[in-house]
Design goal:
About 55% of the residues lie in helices and about 10% in strands. The protein has about 140 residues and is mainly alpha-helical.
Length: about 140
């Protein structure tokens, strides 16, 4: 089975359109169709091996581990871990079969940054008040 056939089978089993896949992968529908047709910008003849970037885009579209797409494309994964976006949209790192860690979403990161910024502002305010208080104590001592 070629990579293009594998991609088409994956898309059809998920009942996704080429347009949906292309949007999720951040590429044009025309480029997605070329991937499924095993076409490349290379005219060397035969079925070209897709680039790692193409495998990354396919993994992103399907929300699967990069290692699965790389394997289908004929690559051996470099790392035992893989970054992927499952259907819930939360970035996820798989470190082996049973060790999965969900990364914070953009909203969670924004919320954490907001809390951090408020805490930093409170610390700065407390430092300022302490300095003023110490300044007042020094003028009282004189």
């Amino acid at each position: 089975m070629t990579f293009g056939q594998w991609v088409r089978d994956q898309r059809e089993s998920r009942r996704m359109t080429k347009t949906e896949c292309a949007q999720r992968a951040g590429i044009s529908v025309q480029r997605w169709a070329q991937i499924e047709a095993d076409e490349s910008s290379s005219k060397a003849g035969g079925i070209p091996q897709p680039s790692r970037k193409t495998a990354e885009r396919v993994a992103l579209a399907f929300g699967i581990p990069l290692s699965a797409a790389l394997e289908a494309a004929g690559y051996q994964p470099d790392l035992p871990s893989a970054l992927f976006l499952p259907d819930d949209g939360r970035p996820t790192v798989a470190l082996g079969k049973d060790n999965i860690a969900h990364l914070p979403s953009a909203q969670e990161l924004d919320a954490a940054m907001s809390v951090f910024q408020r805490a930093l502002a409170a610390i700065e305010e407390a430092k300022k008040q302490k300095e003023e208080q110490e300044g007042n104590e020094n003028t009282d001592d004189e």
